[in-house]
Amino acid sequence: MSQVLEDKSKPYLTPLIKRIRAHIISSGVPLKAVSAKAGISEGRFYRLMDGSTRMTADEVELLCNIEGLEMNPNEIFSLKNS
Is the pTM of this model over 0.85? Predict the structure, then answer.
């Protein structure tokens, strides 16, 4: 039952967010460090990553510009990776 509620409560868990989260996790950079480097508050960043709040294009750009994360916007937005 909690799984059903969780799915409904995460309306912004899009393929884009899933790709970003997977890339961050595979990079080995802790989520807390990514939020600090991006200048996004930790609470908001975790809500973005779990899909409970909508990510803006500006936030995607901030994440793509983090040195060491090597996130290419062309790959992140690519539909073939969905």
Answer: no
